[in-house]
Amino acid sequence: MKSLSETHIGFLYALGAFLTWGFAPIYFKYLAFIPVYEILAHRVIWSLIVTAIILSFLGGWQKVVRVFQSPKKLAFLFVTSLLISTNWIVFIWAINNGRMLDASLGYFINPIINVLLGVVFLNESLSRIKWIAVSLALMGVLVQVQQLGELPWVSLVLPLSFAFYGLLRKKIKIEALTGLFIETLLIFPVALYYMLYVAQTESANMLGNSWSLNGWLMFAGVVTALPLIFFGQAALRLKLSTLGFFQYVAPSLLFMFAVVFYGEQLSLIKTVTFLFIWAGILLFVFESKIRSWL
Q1: What is the per-residue DSSP string for the chain?
Q2: What letters, b where the CB count within 10 A reaches 16 and e where it falls short, cover 37-76?
Q3: pLDDT in tens, 217-231
Q4: Over the chain, what is the mean pLDDT?
Q5: For residue 292, how many other CB atoms are within 10 A of its CB?
Q6: pLDDT of residue 126
Q7: What is the CA radius of gyration of the chain?
Q8: What is the C-alpha to C-alpha distance for residues 252 and 257, in angstroms, rounded to an integer?
Q9: How far apart are the first and last CA of the chain?
Q10: CB atoms within 10 A of CB 279
């Protein structure tokens, strides 16, 4: 039997990561009866436990110790923990408040914001085609601002928080698993305090919950940690350009779930905005082809 190549294994890891992120809204929608902050607290607590177990299995504690010996890296991770917490809570809120389309739009915009951050902070240059793509995305956002009189804040907070998170993580160069463990460890005291002293719902007391509900709450750790681990493994085996194709899987699934399964209305304004964003994405993805035609 022919063994899989490293590239094929990378494809499987990438699919695993982005499909998990794409189907995550179904999980959070199921837990919509639980307050957003409570879900976030469970996500932090159980992600910490899951990553600790995996670190023990892989023998990765020495890497954690080395990070704690670097105040600069710890400071960066404190900031990234705040950024990823913001991203998580806005995402959960959007899913459970009928704003899944806004979340989908945000993650379609995310790659374009990554490119802009590369220009501003990493001195990367943009081709003329990429500048056109960025302009199309900006026009799509401005359409909503002009027609609705306000910024589509969910669609901006999600990509901005995740893009800056990725930028800082790129600068400190810490493995995904090690970084996620320390990030959740840093905000664990806040999550634990919330569960013990602030949360007043019946579900906050896990001793009074059914086994099935507790199982779903604990599963938040898997939903958070597993795709990040898969993504890290895929990044080791695939070119960034190849990996870039997969990043549209999750927002595409979000879009489909919002419109087909959860009945969110795709208004004319949102349709126009998505068309601008998708046009920009097509320019990004097929830039080399377009260059060959010009």
Answers
A1: -PPPPHHHHHHHHHHHHHHHHHHHHHHHHHTTTS-HHHHHHHHHHHHHHHHHHHHHHHT-HHHHHHHHT-HHHHHHHHHHHHHHHHHHHHHHHHHHTT-HHHHHHHHHHHHHHHHHHHHHHS-----HHHHHHHHHHHHHHHHHHHHHSS--HHHHHHHHHHHHHHHHHHHHT--HHHHHHHHHHHHHHHHHHIIIII--SGGG-GGGS-HHHHHHHHHHHHHHHHHHHHHHHHHHHS-HHHHHHHTTHHHHHHHHIIIIIS-----HHHHHHHHHHHHHHHHHHTHHHHHHH-
A2: bbbbbbbbbbbbebbbebbeeeebeebbeebeeeeebeeb
A3: 999 999 988 887 888
A4: 87
A5: 8
A6: 74
A7: 20
A8: 9
A9: 45
A10: 15
Q: Which residue has the tokens 């590369």?
A: 118
User: Is 129's pLDDT higher than 50?
Assistant: yes
Asked whether the CA dihedral 166, 161, 272, 268 is positive or negative, the reply is positive
Residues in the chain: 294
As given in the structure block, the two tokens for residue 35 are 């307050």
Instruction: Provide the token pair at 175.
Output: 């493995």
Structure tokens, 182: 């320390």
Above pLDDT 90, what percent of the chain? 48
91 Cβ partners below 8 Å, 6+ apart?
A: 28, 103, 158
> Is residue 287 within 8 Å of 130, Cβ to Cβ?
yes
Task: Please give the Cα distance from 283 to 126 (Å, whole number).
Answer: 13
